[in-house]
Amino acid sequence: QVYLRESGGGLVQAGGSLRLSCAASGSIGNIYAMGWYRQAPGKQERELVAKITNNREADYADSAKGRFTISRDYAEAMVYLQMNSLKPEDTAVYYCNCLWSRRDSNINYYGQGTQVTVSS
């Protein structure tokens, strides 16, 4: 079991910045990748924002490229999302995610989420 705890959400004006943090605990030895998903108001599904693997390979949603930066502290099992030039359409609940992988078992874990609200 892996536990994820997010922090850093809040209310910001368009054009502003926020930095989200996520701390992993529990069975962190088999975490392969960590990242962030978001669920916008009125939408059923979460969408990938960014993720980064143990090989330091980062992947971003098109909407995040050039504005958001994901980083990891591998020693402390932390992942961060620096969000700049925020837009009202970035308003969502942001969920920390990790992919736990061992032999033939792959499990996605999510945190409770942190609200990001961008006002126009």
Q: Which percent band covers the strand fraction?
A: over 45%
In total, the number of strands is 11
Query: What class do helices, strands and sheet pairing give?
Result: mainly beta
Instruction: Give the uncertain stretches in residue-range form.
Output: none
**Helix amount, in percent?**
under 10%
Report what the structure shows.
The protein is an all-beta fold. The chain has no helices and 11 strands. The chain has strands at 2-7, 10-13, 18-26, 31-39, 47-53, 58-60, 68-73, 78-83, 92-102, 105-110, 114-119. Strands 2, 4, 5, 6, 9, 10 and 11 form a 7-stranded mixed sheet that branches. A hairpin with a 2-residue loop joins strand 9 (92-102) and strand 10 (105-110).
Which labels suit this protein?
120 residues, mainly beta, 11 strands, 0% helix, globular
Quick structural summary:
This protein has 120 residues and is an all-beta fold. Helices cover 0% and strands 61% of the residues.
Topology of this structure?
Layout: E1 2-7, E2 10-13, E3 18-26, E4 31-39, E5 47-53, E6 58-60, E7 68-73, E8 78-83, E9 92-102, E10 105-110, E11 114-119
Parallel strand pairs: 2-11
Antiparallel strand pairs: 1-3, 3-8, 4-5, 4-9, 5-6, 7-8, 9-10, 9-11
